Every structure is written in structure tokens, then in C-alpha cells.
């Protein structure tokens, strides 16, 4: 038996929660169940990051890499089977899940069926794509709910969740920024060959499963805009959702066309935050542009509907999948001095740090039957 089983399938979930998990490990027995992208060399074999942090890792190889909507569902089916076997073996007192990926819902389903309490962080947020339904379903099956902001708290209340089971902890992704636990500018400049006299874009783009047939056209418009802008750009591979393979192929193709576009399968959490700190603006549809980037007071050109409905602040410039409109939005982000000046007083609505401490306090109380 262990105290806590944390289930994760992607680089984002673990990296966001790693500070909390490392601190919690000082007090309880934690096992990490890693699946999905973590075990894929194509996505950087990020299970090694978890192992390097000193955790005992149970591996469930379940990524059905078909780049299709059906492939996502088949992956989820394999996760249910494989993770259930591991949970039955570990017999944890508590299951802990983060966010809106398939593995989070799988963990909540398993906990509900095996009568193991489930703690879910990230419920109550709103977005487009299949993520929104996965997130809401996870909230329904979970027992305790840790949210990043007051708006998400209210959304869970509207879903009928008991207010005594919802706790506003803030977003743990902000903790490392407040603590300055990221790669310094000189390190990033040298490692990624960045020219300090030029602007820099950070591009992260994931598929919206509700627009699956349009993903190739969408990423082409973005990359054509970047080519014409002629601004040095660093991009990281998309996730494993349907359409992700198409995005990654296009990223590789355009990086061969232009020396200004550099593409990486995986970038460590410290370096990614360091790039956020250094970049002139972030472009794409990643939630990191909404949640973490405001703490660096940097602009985010948010393209399309993937983050529709999610809490946003004034660093966000909304645009669509039109090359000309994307170029206009990037120009505003980089060259509009009034817009940039307005960001100097920006406060991040997702918290001010110490989220990991609040999360762990709640988990310890649950384990000690104090809730």
C-alpha cells in the first residue's frame, strides 16, 4: 500500500505539479503512474524527468499513436486496463490527478469504482476541444477539487459540487516563476543560439479536436505568418491528440525552410520558463500563455477557439487563423508600446505562488481524515 498515486500522461501535468509532489514526498509515500506521452521517445521520453526527481514510477505503455480521434479513445481504453492493474497492486489511500487529459479521467473513474478518494486539480476551467468534456467528467467522478481561481470555483458550484469539497489553491505552474526556479537568460541565450538584438517568438500550438479536419490549414496559416514576419521563433512539438502528428510534421517542414524557426520535441520545464522570460511574445493556443505567461508580463497571441471561455487577462491578444490577422496581432504584441506598457502592472489572476503548499496541506488533511 502507498499513500498517494499520482497519474500522469504528459509533460505538462507532471511539470506543473512536480514542486508539490517533491515537497509532499517528504511526508508521505508517493508513487507516480506514468503513461501516454511520457513513455514515447517521439515526445522526449519524459518519464526520465520523473525518475530523475527520485520518484518510484510505475509505467503503463498505452499510447495508441494513430493521430486520429479513434486513436485517442483506444489509448484511453488501454489506460483504463493498464492503470487499473497498477492501482490494484499499489492500493493507494488517495489518487491524485491534474488537468484535462484522458489519464486524469481514467484515474477518477478508477478511484470511483475501487472506492479510493480522488483529488483533482484543474476542474472548473472552461475551454474548447475534447479537453472541456474530459475536465468536467473528471470533476464529476472526483471527491476533492483544487482550483486555480475563483471563477473555476464558481463553475464547479454550478455543476453541483459540494462547496466544502472545493479549495482555491491557485495554479502550481506559477510557483517556479515566483521562486525564479527557471533557466537564466544567459543560459537560454547560449543553449538555444538566441541573438539578443532580435525579437523572439515562442510558438506552442495544439490541435482542437472539435476542428480536427482543419488542423493542417490552421498550422499552415500560423507558420506562413511567421515566415513573412521573419522573426526568430522557437517551437515545441504539439501533444499527442488527434492532429498533433500533422502539426509536428509541418513544424519540421517549415524549420527546414527557414533558419529562423527552431523546433524541439521536448524542452525541460526550467528552460521553457526561461524562454517565456526571454521571449518578446508567445504565439499559439497553449494554456501556458494564459496561466504562466502573465507572471512574466509578456504578451500572448491566442489563435483560434481552443481556449475559448477560459479565464484571460490583458496580456492576451485574440485572433483567428488568418495569416494577415496573425501578423497584425504579433505586431501589436511586439511593437505597440502602449500595450506593452499596460502589462507592467499586470496581476496574474491564477495566483501569486505558494500553490504547492496549499495543495499539500489539503492532501495531508485528507490522508489524516481531517476532511
Textual characterization of the structure:
This is UDP-N-acetylglucosamine 2-epimerase. InterPro entries: UDP-GlcNAc_Epase (IPR020004), UDP_GlcNAc_Epimerase_2_dom (IPR003331), WecB-like (IPR029767). By secondary structure, the protein is an alpha/beta fold. The protein has 2 domains: 4-170 and 353-367, Rossmann fold, CATH 3.40.50.2000; 185-345, Rossmann fold, CATH 3.40.50.2000. Helices cover 44% and strands 15% of the residues. It is built from 15 helices and 13 strands. The protein has a 7-stranded parallel sheet with strand order 3-2-1-4-5-6-7, sandwiched between helices. The relative contact order is 0.13.
Layout of secondary structure:
Blueprint: E1 4-8, H1 11-24, E2 30-35, H2 47-52, E3 56-60, H3 69-90, E4 94-98, H4 102-114, E5 118-121, H5 129-141, E6 144-147, H6 150-158, E7 166-168, H7 175-178, H8 185-191, E8 201-204, H9 215-229, E9 233-236, H10 244-257, E10 261-264, H11 269-278, E11 281-284, H12 288-291, E12 300-303, E13 316-319, H13 323-335, H14 337-342, H15 355-367
Parallel strand pairs: 1-2, 1-4, 2-3, 4-5, 5-6, 6-7, 8-9, 8-11, 9-10, 11-12, 12-13
Amino acid at each position: 500500500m502507498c499513500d498517494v498515486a499520482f497519474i500522469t500522461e504528459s509533460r505538462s501535468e507532471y511539470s506543473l505539479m512536480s514542486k508539490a509532489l517533491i515537497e509532499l514526498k517528504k511526508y508521505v509515500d508517493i508513487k507516480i503512474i506514468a503513461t501516454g506521452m511520457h513513455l514515447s521517445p517521439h515526445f522526449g521520453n519524459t518519464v526520465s524527468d520523473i525518475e530523475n526527481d527520485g520518484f518510484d514510477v510505475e509505467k503503463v505503455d498505452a499510447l495508441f499513436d494513430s493521430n486520429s480521434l479513434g486513436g485517442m479513445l483506444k489509448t484511453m481504453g488501454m489506460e483504463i486496463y493498464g492503470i487499473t492493474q497498477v492501482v490494484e497492486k499499489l492500493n493507494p489511500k488517495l489518487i491524485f490527478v491534474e488537468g484535462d487529459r484522458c489519464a486524469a479521467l481514467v484515474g477518477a473513474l478508477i478511484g470511483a469504482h475501487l472506492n479510493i478518494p480522488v483529488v483533482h486539480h484543474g476542474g472548473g476551467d472552461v475551454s474548447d476541444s475534447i479537453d472541456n468534456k474530459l475536465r468536467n467528467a473528471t470533476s464529476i467522478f472526483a471527491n476533492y477539487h483544487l482550483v486555480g481561481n475563483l471563477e473555476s470555483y464558481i463553475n464547479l458550484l454550478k455543476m453541483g459540487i459540494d462547496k466544502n469539497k472545493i479549495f482555491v489553491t491557485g495554479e502550481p505552474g506559477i510557483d517556479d516563476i515566483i521562486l525564479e526556479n527557471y533557466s537564466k537568460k544567459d543560459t537560454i541565450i547560449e543553449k538555444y543560439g538566441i541573438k539578443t538584438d532580435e525579437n523572439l517568438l515562442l510558438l506552442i500550438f495544439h490541435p482542437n479536436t472539435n476542428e480536427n479536419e482543419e488542423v493542417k490549414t490552421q498550422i499552415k496559416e500560423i507558420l506562413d505568418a511567421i515566415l513573412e514576419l521573419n522573426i526568430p521563433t522557437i517551437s515545441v512539438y504539439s501533444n499527442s491528440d488527434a492532429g498533433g502528428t500533422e502539426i509536428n510534421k509541418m513544424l519540421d517542414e517549415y524549420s527546414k525552410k527557414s533558419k529562423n524557426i527552431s523546433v524541439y520535441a521536448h524542452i525541460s520545464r526550467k528552460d521553457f520558463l526561461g524562454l517565456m522570460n526571454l521571449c518578446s511574445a508567445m504565439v499559439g493556443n497553449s494554456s501556458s500563455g494564459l496561466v504562466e505567461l502573465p507572471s512574466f508580463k509578456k504578451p500572448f497571441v491566442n489563435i483560434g477557439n481552443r481556449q475559448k471561455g477560459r479565464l484571460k487577462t490583458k496580456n492576451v491578444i485574440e485572433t483567428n487563423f488568418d495569416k494577415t490577422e496573425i501578423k497584425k496581432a504579433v505586431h501589436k504584441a511586439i511593437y505597440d508600446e502602449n500595450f506593452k506598457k499596460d502589462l507592467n502592472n499586470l496581476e496574474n489572476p491564477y495566483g501569486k505562488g505558494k500553490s504547492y503548499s496549499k495543495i499539500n496541506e489539503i492532501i495531508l488533511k485528507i490522508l489524516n481524515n481531517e476532511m
